[in-house]
Amino acid sequence: MKVTEQSSNYNNLDKMSVKELLENINREDQHVALAVKECIPQIEKLVEGIVERMKKGGRLFYLGAGTSGRLGILDASEIPPTYGAPYDLVIGLIAGGDTAIRKAVEDAEDSLTGGWDDMQKYNIGDNDVVVGIAASGTTPYVIGAVREARKRGLLTACITCNPGAPVTEEVDIPIVAVVGPEFVTGSTRMKSGTAQKLILNMISTSTMIKLGHVKGNKMVDMQLTNAKLVDRGTRMIMEEAKIEDYDYAKSLLLEHGSVRKAVDYYKSLNVQ
After folding, report:
1. In whole angstroms, what is the distance from residue 254 CA to residue 244 CA?
2. Side by side, which strands form the sheet with 173-176?
3. What does the buried/exposed string (b/e) look like for 136-172 if buried means 16 or more CB atoms within 10 Å of the residue's CB?
4. Which residue pairs from 10-17 have beta carbons closer than 8 angstroms and sit at least 24 positions apart in sequence?
5. Residues 134-170 pLDDT 10s
6. What separation in angstroms does the CA of 94 have from each of 8, 100, 114, 238?
């Protein structure tokens, strides 16, 4: 039986107090980070492959169904505002299309050709990377996509929570976080979903850092989409460029559009 489908280590959940439920969920969640730690060698290999290919114009595709698909879309959608990267650099696809982000689309995940079909509008290139996300590791939508991508020479990986799952046989880099049975039997939006989220964070964050979107520990290319981010960017400029005047630093940021460009401009003035 799949680990993700095994019976919960807890019974009579409906008879537990709220405190007992919360404490037991938290106890189970503590296993997740340790399971992800075991995957670091595979994640490292994947990130290095992504960075190498992105430097040659490649992109990163996440594919999944249900919770897995939503997590991929979430991670992809955060890249442009956080790191100022193009919207088509990291692309999240979900079985059933955008409708499935909020509402389940029946049978969409059962198509072996659906995932690869959904990728076709993006003019797939040799340097693209495809990561299939499937807690069970059996989702046809994901398996079909990574199988076809690998056949065509693309770098492929998967994120699953079941050792020996079919999807692990279809990719170059299988990432398997074995978090154990879910607190509610089979509810993979819980520990499995948390493990997937942690791994996706590691992949995209490490990739963006290695591509130069972080300087020191600062997001120097973030988009200035609200007052909080403008304030953060202003203070980053003040720290980096040793500027004491908040209003002046803010004016530099708004004029040049990013922390990186504002600091570079200011430093060029001092060089001259």
Report:
1. 17
2. 90-94, 60-64, 129-133, 155-160, 173-176
3. bbbbbbbbbbbbbbbeeebbbbbbbbbeebbbbebbb
4. 10/183, 13/183, 13/184
5. 999 999 999 999 999 999 999 999 999 999 999 999 9
6. 28, 7, 10, 41
128: three-class secondary structure by DSSP: coil
Number of helices followed by number of strands (H, E) in the chain: 10, 7
8 Å CB contact between 259 and 237 = yes
Q: Shortest CA distance to 134 belongs to which of 124, 144, 125, 126?
A: 144
C-beta separation of 156 from 168 below 8 A? no
Q: Tokens in use for 108?
A: 């969409």
Task: Report the predicted TM-score, pTM, of the whole model to 2 decimal places.
Answer: 0.93
Residues in Cβ contact with 122 at an 8 Å cutoff, skipping those fewer than 6 apart = 59, 61, 88, 91
Give the Cα separation of 220 and 127 in Å (integer).
26
Quick check: 167 and 143 in contact, CB under 8 A? yes
Q: Tell me the backbone φ, ψ of residue 84, rounded to 5 degrees.
A: 70, 15
In whole angstroms, what is the distance from residue 28 CA to residue 206 CA?
Answer: 27
Question: Of 3-12, 104-113, 124-133, where does mean pLDDT reach its minimum?
Answer: 104-113
148: helix, coil or strand?
helix
- Centre a 10 Å sphere on the Cβ of residue 214 and count the other Cβ atoms it contains: 18
- What are the residue numbers of the active site? 78, 109
Per the CB < 8 A criterion, the answer to whether 61 and 91 are in contact is yes
pLDDT value for 106: 74
